[in-house]
Amino acid sequence: MENVLRPLIVVGSSVLLTLALGWATDRLLRKADERNPDSPLWELLRRGRIPYQLVLCAALLRGSYDQAQLSPEHHTGIGRGLTLVLIGSAAWLVIRIAAAVVETSYSRYARVHRDAARVRRVRTQVELIMRVVSAVVIVMAIASMLLTFPAMRAAGASLLASAGIVGIVAGVAAQSTLSNLFAGLQIAFGDMVRIGDTVVVDGEWGTVDEITLTFLTVRTWDERRITMPVSYFTSKPFENWSRGTPQMTGTVYWYLDHSAPVGAMREKLRDILRTCPAWDGRAAGLQVTDTTPNTVQVRALVTAKDADDIWTVRVTVREQMISWLSEEHPYALPRVNTSDAVLPPYRVPSPDRASLRKAYEFPRTGRG
Q1: Alpha-carbon gap, residue 150 to 154, rounded angstroms
Q2: pLDDT above 60 (res 366)
Q3: Could you tell me which residue, 41 or 74, shows the higher pLDDT?
Q4: Taking the CA of residue 71 as centre, how many other CA atoms within 13 Å lie in the half-sphere pointing to its CB?
Q5: CA-to-CA separations, 366 to 359, 360, 362, 363, in angstroms, rounded
Q6: Regarding beta strands 296-304 and 279-291, do their DSSP bridges make them parallel or antiparallel, or are they unpaired?
Q7: CA–CA gap between residue 117 and residue 292 (Å, rounded)
Q8: Which residues contact 131 (CB under 8 A, 6 or more apart)?
Q9: CA atoms in the 13 A half-sphere facing the CB of 158
């Protein structure tokens, strides 16, 4: 009877104590969250309930398993299994706690600072730091799990002895991967490009959607995703429209007839911009910038607060100006001449010397 009750008491008490501690901790976190609604820390910490209970249960079972006296022949295997579960759940819990702390810090920073560029920079750094922390914790957890096996501990000396050669070989073999890794760190802390920045890469205009330690994703205006290695942004030039202030100046071109009313177009441009909410009112202008035998090139300069608004202003100005010209000044639109060519005036050919000699000799011969 004792052989049956002892394991049930040990295992049951460990499970019940785990559930009781988990429930009590969750209640405390919930009350803390209700008292501090402005801080997301307590709500984020509640997401670690499962790894927290796994850590408690594995620790209690690992410490009291000897008292249960269950399956003595499998004592070593079960003990090692509980140790592996404890290490894995502890790593999971550490990652959840680190994510909660980092996310809370970012939320506080975003509420205090109104500068969108600085907030995007901190967001990029926070996400990359979280990825590094997660990778380090996972590697350490895997290493700790391997060290629980005696065979792995015995092989540790030989692995450390050959670590230099292995490191050199791995560095040569993974040269591109390591370059991307260091490029990701350079982007995170060098403030070259941030999540949410508007960039132009290889002629494609889009917004930075994701940055990792090895690749960067750009979401284009037509919802495509362009994935590029982060080393590209540290080795080649690219346009970052969000660098510094997001204000932008855009251009609109028309190719018109030489008789186009440029002065009236300037007045119409001002009328269009007054009714365009995306125009920020900083600057506007219209000039003739080039001429060809058939057309003139007219350029309008407009401004807006960011890349999205400058696109709206440009298409609005282009469309409304063309509609106004076609209705009010259709002669200003470029056209192809299809009428007959005008010939030069008729000229009588000058007489040559032989015809003049004949004209003078004929009357003389008649008088003779």
Answers
A1: 6
A2: no
A3: 41
A4: 7
A5: 12, 11, 6, 5
A6: antiparallel
A7: 43
A8: 212, 213
A9: 5
